[in-house]
Amino acid sequence: MGEPRKGFVERLFAEHHRALQAFFYRRIRGKSQAPDLVQEVYLRMLRVSDVDAIQNPEAYLYTVAANLAKEHAVLERRQLGAVSPDDIGIQDLLGELPTADRELETDRRVTRLRTVLMQLSPKCRAAVALRYRQELSYEEIGERLGVSSNMVKKYLVQALAHCRCRMASME
Questions:
Q1: 163 and 117 in contact (C-beta within 8 Å)?
Q2: Is 14 in a helix, a strand, or coil?
Q3: What is the pTM of this model?
C-alpha cells in the first residue's frame, strides 16, 4: 500500500468522517453499527488500486457508503427473515417452563429480557405482549393496535430478531 493512497484516504476521511457517520445513522436501523460501517468504507477505500482515477473523491466515497448500506440492509433482512413467530421451535422455547435448578438463571434471563423488550418501539412491545401473554391472533392484535395483521407479524419478527440478538450478546 503506497503512502499517497493512504494519505489520500486519510485526508478524505478527516474531511467527511462525521458526515459519513450521519449518512449511516439515517439509513440503518441499528445506530450502534454506524461506526463499524464507516470503518468498513475506510477499508474499502484503502483497497482502491488507482486513486488517481477517481475524478470526484467525495461522490466516490458516498457511492461506496451507499453500496455498503444496501449490503447491510440485505443482510439484516435475511437475518430477520430467518426468524418466524410461527416456528414450532420458537413456540416451544417461549412455552418451555424452567426446572427448579434453573430458577436463578431464569430470573437473570427475565431481567435481561425485560431490558431488551424495553428497547422495542411501543407498538412492537405491545404486539409481543398481546401475542405471548394473551395469546391473541394476528388479526385481534391488529385490531387493538390499529394496524394490519401483516404489520403485526412484522412487529413480532422484528421483536424476536431483536431479542435473540440482544440476549445472545448479553450472555
A1: yes
A2: helix
A3: 0.47
Position 2 pLDDT exceeds 50: no
CB atoms inside a 10 Å sphere around CB 169: 8
What does the domain layout of the chain look like in residue ranges? 3-81, 88-170
The CATH topology of domain 3-81 is Rna Polymerase Sigma Factor; Chain: A (1.10.1740)
User: Per 3-state DSSP, what percentage of the chain is helix, strand, and coil (rounded to 5)?
Assistant: 80, 0, 20
| CATH architecture group of domain 88-170 | Orthogonal Bundle (1.10)
Q: How far apart are CA 163 and CA 119, in angstroms?
A: 9
Separation of alpha carbons 1 and 18, rounded Å: 25
- In three-state secondary structure terms, 146 is coil
Q: Among 43-52, 79-88, 153-162, name the one with the lowest average pLDDT.
A: 79-88
Q: Is the pLDDT at 138 greater than 50, yes or no?
A: yes
User: How much is the pLDDT for 1?
Assistant: 39
C-alpha cell at 21: 457517520
What is the amino acid identity at position 9?
V
Query: Which phi-psi region, left, alpha or beta, contains residue 135 (left: φ > 0; alpha: ψ -120 to 50)?
Result: left
